[in-house]
Structures are given as C-alpha cells and as structure tokens.
Design goal:
Bound molecules: 3-methyl-2-oxobutanoic acid
Shape: globular
Largest sheet: 8 strands, parallel
Helix content: 40-55%
Order of helices and strands: EHEHHEHEHEHHEHEEHH
Radius of gyration: 20 Å
Strand order of the largest sheet: 1-2-3-4-5-6-7-8
Oligomer: single chain
Number of helices: 10
Number of domains: 2
CATH superfamily of the largest domain: Phosphoenolpyruvate-binding domains
CATH topology of the largest domain: TIM Barrel
Strand content: 5-15%
CATH class of the largest domain: Alpha Beta
Number of strands: 8
Length: 245
C-alpha cells in the first residue's frame, strides 16, 4: 500500500500494481505542512478522499478517521464514517483501541471494513512525547499484542503496525488471522505501506530510518523547474509549435 491525497497521484497509482491506497491523515504534514496530523478534520479528509477516489476508482481505498473524530461518541463517529465512506473510501482506519472499542465494533458490524493502527499512533504524539519506536520491552510489547488480538476480535480486517521492533511485528503477524501492514515494523508483516512522497524522495529534510527512497523526486522536480525557468528566460519557451497562429 501507499498513501495518496490527491487526484493526480491517484491517477498514476491507478496504473500501478499496488494493492491499496491509504488517504492518510499524514496529509496534515505532507500536504498542509503541519508538524503532526492533529489538525486534520473530517471535512479535510473528505476532500482528499474524494479526490483520490476520482483518480483511482479501481483501487482499494482506505481513509483515516482523523483526530478525535471517533472519540466523542458512537453517533459522532458514525456520522464521520458516513461522510468518508460517502466520499469514496472502501474502508476506514482508526488509530488505537482503548476507549473506543464500541466505535470499532459498531463500524465493523455496520459493514464498514475497519483497519486498526497500533504501535506509534501519530494522533497520540503529544502523549508519547514525540515520534518514537513503540513496543520496546516485555510489558509494552505484550500490551500491543493484546490490543492486536482485541482488534481482530472486534472485527478489524487488518492492522497497520507502525514503528515497532521487527520481532514484535512478526509475533503479532503470526498470532493474527487478519493481515498486518507494516511501516517501520520490519519485513515480516503481511504487507507494507509507505508515504508516497517519502518513497518518491520528495522531502529532502525527512529521512526516517524505515523510509527507503525509490526515486530522487526532489532533484528531478527541481531540475525540471530549472529547465522551464531557463527556457522562459532564454526566450525558447514557448516555441512557435507551442503557440496558436
Ligand atoms: O496517515 C498515514 O499516512 C498513516 C500511515 C503512516 C500508515 O497512517
């Protein structure tokens, strides 16, 4: 899986072999330039989800339930879920489990495929005191295993495991019947996800250990823009073939 937030990239992903697209609330950081994901709202997630659904109608699209949208009440969560499913999501991702087990169960029982998200939960960044690996040590690891099993029992169809030790991710993956999707969780999850802009090398200031760049996007894009700028300033663009007579 990869993340996507807009129509243009969704059209490209539609031509790729990736199995699924996550309209992640990482849009808050990647698209809106915020320090974390907390500013994302249901309305912003609706706009991004709709754009991706238009661009990649044949792909499996998961949208993130944004910060607090599933914590106020089951009714409020179901309203938010209805908006995101109506925007074209096929499934919704919900971070964590403690205190919103009822929401996860209601969503799953209502025909909404629910993807869980354990380990580093970016919506809890302030509670954690930063973006760090989670689940190190026996007790924290046992707690994540317990939560993963509980998510499966509540009806989740899959779980993202973010930034946990690879051994722990392997143990969770073998303990569950549903697939795990890893990011910073080693190679033995059932699948992997990366933020599209990270794998394309678009952000030269951000190099988390787990995010391999598969393209030098920043260099390539800057070089294309430099070529355009030089051509305009040299008077070689537009040419007569690029002009109307
Ligand atoms: O919002 C997001 O991009 C995510 C992925 C990191 C899994 O939740």
């Amino acid at each position: 899986m990869v993340t996507c937030y807009d129509y243009t990239f969704a059209r490209l992903l539609a031509q790729s072999a990736v199995d699924g697209i996550l309209v992640g609330d990482s849009a808050g950081m990647v698209i809106h330039g915020r320090a974390n994901t907390l500013s994302m709202t249901v309305e912003l997630m609706r706009i991004h989800t709709e754009a991706v659904a238009h661009g990649a109608p044949g792909k499996f699209i998961v949208a993130d339930m944004p910060f607090l949208s599933f914590r106020k009440s089951v009714d409020a969560a179901m309203d938010a879920a209805a908006i995101l499913m109506g925007a074209g999501a096929h499934a919704l991702k919900v971070e964590g489990i403690l205190g919103h087990e009822d929401v996860i169960a209601r969503m799953a029982q209502s025909g909404i495929p629910v993807m869980g998200h354990l380990g580093m939960q970016p919506q809890s960044v302030h509670a954690y005191g930063g973006f760090h690996v989670r689940g190190k040590g026996d007790e924290p690891a046992r707690e994540i295993i317990h939560q993963a099993k509980a998510l499966e029992e509540l009806g989740a169809f899959s779980i993202v495991l973010e930034c946990i030790p690879a051994d722990l991710a392997r143990e969770i993956t073998s303990a569950l019947h549903i697939p795990t999707i890893g990011i910073g969780a080693g190679a033995e999850c059932d699948g992997q996800i990366l933020v599209l802009q990270d794998l394309l090398g678009m952000n030269t200031d951000f190099h988390p250990k787990f995010a391999r760049t598969f393209f030098d996007g920043a260099d390539q894009i800057l070089s294309a823009i430099a070529n355009y700028d030089s051509a305009v300033k040299a008077g070689t663009f537009p040419s007569s073939r690029e002009s109307y007579s």
